[in-house]
Every structure is written in structure tokens, then in C-alpha cells.
Amino acid sequence: MYNLLFARSTGGTFILRIEDTDVERSREELSAQILAAMEWLGLDFDEGPFYQSKRTDLYRAAAEKLLAEGKAYRAFEKPEELDVERKAAEAAGKAYRYSGAGRDISPDESERRARAGERHVVRLKMPAETIVVEDLVRGRVEFLPEALDDFVLVRSDGHPLYHFCVCVDDADMRITHVLRGDDHLANTPKHVALFAALGTPVPQFAHLGMILGTDKKKLSKRHGAAAVEEWRDVGILPETLFNFLALLGWSPGDDREILTRAEMETLFSIDRIGASPSVFDPEKLLWMNAQYIHQLPAEELLARSAPFATAGLPPTPVALAAVELHRTRVRTTIEMGRALAAYAADPDEYDADGMKKQVKPETAAQMAKLVENLEAVSDWTIGPLEEALRRTAEELGVSAGKLIHPTRLALTGITVGAPLFDVMALLGKETAMRRLRSFEKRIGSQG
RNA sequence: GGCCCCUUCGUCUAACGGUUAGGACACAGCCCUCUCAAGGCUGUAAUACGGGUUCGAUUCCCGUAGGGGCUACCA
């Protein structure tokens, strides 16, 4: 998202690259899921997607070049040997580093052994000097040479590795800015060294704080595309999620929180990115989604809620009025769908607590009286309906509430929701009377 | 273990040496009200700790603590 916003705010190009170099873990459906999530969120890229798995020739050529120039070398240790060294270092309480033994093999011998088919990896010759990373959000970060070792560029099966592909691609695609998770800061000196070896300019880096779960732990399992789909499925609008996520780590500088895409695209700037990690608060996401639901035109809100409603309603005047009636009462399009369902079908059950609380022994008789009076109402609109109900209450010598609450229960199956007379008017006389009679029957038989 | 990053209300954040430390979510109260919301008003609540530097530190430096990351023939 920040890469997109940055590109848009500066007139740059937003390129999508799928880094699927790990043949064991990469799967077609995973990238498809990412693409779908990006489309839903509105992360429209200008170029790509480019799949690293399809660009192996490029990496192979780069590796050959580094080898030829003596900036990289072949190493012939077996993984098991390295494991032993690593375990030994660990047991001794020391930091493990690759011995660098491969550096001492002469180019001729290296060439000969490779041609003979001996398995080997390609490692980068890390320079024996401090590597400085100039980070746009963290400032200057230094890495001492003893902390870095000659990492592997190409596996012994010939597959190029992530760090290598990234730098080759960044150079090839002329990437100017890399905005990525904080977790990559420690990898950046590798990249800087690689760019130097490749003889290409080093892009600018901006390392972003990670997003944490409510437990303050790094968001796991439910991250990335899967999480985006989860929020979509509970009725969060994509523009809400975009807005919310944009504010996790960035702020426009004033107190505004509800921002359009266009506003974010012009206001975004790297100097307003914070360095600290942030906790993802679903409560605030829900609040923000409600804000978006308040703003949406009724037709659109209806259309976007319909897939979730038990019965999708056509955009009739009644449906649109129902949307207006409920928009301040729901936080997700799912909830809107549920609220709208009451206008499409009679309640199939009544809220149990509501029945207990609102239905008293005398209620059946009171409701009978109300039904009788409502039957006489010819102008089925809010005013006359309220008048009829209040008159009934007066005749019965009870407060209006004694009738209002059971009526709402009869009409919608629940005790909370939109103002009763609005609901009645929208339902229409026929539907309302049918529901009232069936409720009357139900509580009558209950005794 | 080694290296690196981070640290303002419970949460998201503003304040780029001088503010009664601001806003938002959540929470509480009040108003509105047929219920539930929405909305309005009010309130509780923070500079992790310890040292410096400075006339003055949330802000700059060092240390401690806590959290996170990297340390793969993963990304």
C-alpha cells in the first residue's frame, strides 16, 4: 500500500513482483489469492505481475558474471557439514559464520570441479568493511563486517535465492525506492553489498514498522491475502480497510482520519511514516467501516450489502428507505444484509429474551386491541400509525411502550432496531398485519 | 548468544527543544429517545525507567528494562 501511495504521490510507477523463488513453498493458488486480494483492495499496479520463477535466465547470467569477476565464488561444502559447524558454534556460545573456505579455491580448480558436476552453491564475497544503510525512516544504520558472512546466492540445485533475485530485479527494473517491512532491515546490508557487486545504484530504503495483533505479537497465520479476505467476508469495505491500514504507521499530519484514496495519494509522504510497530485494533476498523457506511449512497450501499442478505432486495423505494433507516445502526455490510432481510421475509423465530421480557399475561389481549385499531388505519404512514398506537395505549390505560416493544418483536423478531413506526410504514399494511396476527396467535396459544 | 530496530493514554497517533502533552477508537456520564444505534457535550487515561546535554527536554546523547527482527542451500 505504501509503495502504491508513494508511487502515486510522486508520479512514480508501482510495479508488482511476485517473489516465488522458493520452489517448495510457491504455489499458483497463493499468488492468485494475493492478486485477488490486491484487486479487491484497489492496489492497482502499473506494471507486472512479474514472476521471479520465470526470470531464472536473468539470475543465472548475473551469477555467471559475478563469478567471472571474482565477486562471488563457488563453495562445495555439503549442507550437513555446515549444520555441524553451526551446531558447534552454537554449543560454544559463539555466533556462527561461514568459514569462507570457498574463497581459497582457485578459479581454475573451482571451474574444473563445477564442470565435473560437483555440487556447489554460489556465495557472495562480502567486503571486509562496515556497510551503511541510509534508511528514509530510521536514518543511518551501520553493520559491522563481522556480523555479515558470505551468504548463498544460488543453491546447489541451481535455483537462485531470494536476496539475490531481489537485487538483480531491482537493478533490472530500475527500482528507485524500496518500502518494506522492518523485518528486512537486517537483510539490507546484504542487498547493499550485492548492488555494489552488481555495479548498480542502491535504491532508497524505507523500513516500515510491523503490524501486530491485539496480543502485541506479530500478526501470524491470518496475515496478508488471507486476512484481507477475512475482513471482506465479514462485511468490511475495501476502502475502509485501505484507509485504516494506511493510518497504521502513517498520518497525514492533521487530525483527519477518514481520507479518500485521492487524498491519501496526494498527501502521502515518507517523512510522515512512523518507525514503531502498531497494533491492529479491529474495534477501530469496525468504527471506521461504520463511518464509510454512513457516507455511501443508498443504492450503492444496498448493492454492496445484497450479496450478504438472506434475500437480495431490488433497489425499490422501500428497500432504499430501509437502507437509510438502518445505515446508522450497522457497522458492516453483513449486518446491513441481516437488517434488510427483515423486509424480505417474515421472522421465523422471536428473540427468546425479548419474549420473556415483553410478553406478559395481558399482552395478548392488548395486542388484539391494537390489531383491531390498526386494521382501521387506511393511511398507512408514520403519523397515523403512531396516532393509532398511542390511542390504543390510552384506551387500554397503559404506556405506549407496553405496545411498542411487543409490536417490534412481532414485526422483526427482535427487540432492538429502527424506530417502530418507520418500520411499520415500510413493511406496508398487509405484511405488518400478517406478522402481527401470527404473533398474536403465537402468544395466545402460549397462554 | 551475536547484530539490528522499536518504546507518548488500553489501542492508532499529533506535538520535528518552550503546549494546561492535541485528536481518534474503546470506556464512563449526560443530552436526545418507543428500543437499539447514530449524533452532541463532558470525563477517566500517556511521554517505560535511570543518567546526562541544555536556561528549558516527549523531542538530542548514553545506559537499563521490555517488545520485535535478522542470524538458512526460506521469503
Would you kindly provide a written description of the structure presented here, covering whatever features stand out?
Helix content is 50%, strand content 10%. It has helices at residues 2-10, 28-41, 56-68, 79-91, 107-115, 162-172, 188-198, 224-233, 238-246, 261-267, 282-295, 298-305, 317-326, 333-344, 352-358, 363-375, 382-396, 401-412, 420-427, 429-446, and strands at 15-18, 47-51, 72-75, 121-124, 131-135, 139-143, 152-154, 177-181, 204-208, 211-212, 278-279. Helix 13 packs across helix 14, helix 16 (363-375) crosses helix 17 and helix 16 packs across helix 18. The longest helix is centred in the C-terminal third of the chain and has 18 residues, at 429-446. The chain is elongated and about 105 Å long.
Summarize the structure.
The chain is mostly helical. The chain contains 20 helices and 11 strands.
Provide tags for this entry.
mainly alpha, two-stranded parallel sheet, RNA-binding
Q: What is the C-alpha radius of gyration, as a whole number of Å?
A: 33 Å
How does the overall form come out from the CA principal axes? elongated
Largest sheet composition: 3 strands, antiparallel
The overall strand count is 11
First-to-last CA distance: 61 Å
Q: Structural class of the helices, strands and pairings?
A: mainly alpha
List the total number of helices.
20
Poorly predicted regions are none
Strand order of the largest sheet: 3-4-7
Mean of pLDDT: 93
Q: DSSP strand (E) fraction?
A: 5-15%
Helicity, in percent?
40-55%
